[in-house]
Structure prediction request, 99 residues.
Amino acid sequence: AVVSTQSTGATVYELRQIIKETGIKTSSIDPLPTEIFTKHLELFLPILCDIVNLSLSTGSMDGLKMAHITPLIKGMSLDNESFKNYRPISNLTFIGKLI
Prediction:
């Protein structure tokens, strides 16, 4: 999550540092794979910064907070026909995790 000390919002520098510390992990529903984000990060940073700041200034994440949800059985000895024996694993999109 981006926490900015400036009233103007997050900066490209702050996003670069956050990404450097946490890494880039994309989901199967991300529009671009990890390799492309990594290879062209400097190109994407200003765009990502605009998206993050727009989301923070409006308080909206409409269309940004999506996830691919995979059910995972809680234990191999449990009945796999019963939904209560599963827990959801959410793989968020890269931008959703960044915000």
Observations:
- The CA atoms of residues 17 and 23 lie 10 Å apart.
- The chain is about 40% helix and 15% strand.
